[in-house]
Amino acid sequence: MPEFLYNNKTAHQRQERSGRQTTWGHQGNPGRYLSALSRANDGKIRHILRASPAAVPTSSGLIQRLAAPGAISVSPCSTLPRQIFNRGGCGGGSDFTHNDFQSLSGVGAAGRALVWQADNLSIDFRLRNDMRLELGLLAGSEGWRMVDHFTGGSGTTLSHDNSSTLGSAALSSATFTRLNTATVTAIETALTAMAASGVIDCNTLSIAGVSLPGVSFSFSDGFALKGIIGGTQGLRIRVTSLAVDPVKRTYDIGLQYLICDDFGVDTADLYSPALAAFWVLQHRRAGNLPFINELDLSHSASGSF
Fold this sequence. Notes:
The protein has 305 residues and is α/β, with parallel strands linked by helices.
């Protein structure tokens, strides 16, 4: 109901309640009074309808405030998972060749002695046992599995997810925590920059130029991680899901970390009998193939930007 009609009606009712004298001039002809009141209201309506729209005040600030929640548009990823970071790689280099009689040039006397002993005084069965003994002490049955896969000669990649022995150890390690913290910080920085431009587009989200910490597992991260993987050679990070609230400026993101390392050795690793046995089997014996260990870790994060 228009406010001015509501006020007239209220005032009229208030006058009637205050006593008969409020309508003494119209007691004889109430219809004439109501007709006059109707004509007066019609006149006010016509006056409002004739008023210029320009007379209604506007506020650009109000319009901006109303439009603010939609100021940042969000475009979802056209395909998932989507890679946002890539560094290094596996499956190449001198630690991935095999049966190639790799040169010992540059290897010191101690390393040469270890190779000579393994190559001339031990049969292949003994060399494999040397490997199994050392990796078994460090990583138990998982270490034995690595040796068996190497000597089995398939060369196929072994993947280790969150529930695996190596994957679960990696997820809880200080090394991975440092990596994940730096990754999430870089993502929030990227989202903040995109929000400032007015568009958050999952298809262009990237942290490619960021210097993330290296991934090298130590004994404090777990003996199995150190013994089987240790330093790593490749890192890829993918987005598996992304939900953004542009009004609250919050996000939820799913991430996949693919961390790889060659299970193989070169002349730089000739500092123990077990590693010398590993080197001889890989580079001077047929049928033993290096392979890639890949940690496939899923992790989620949420925050604001």
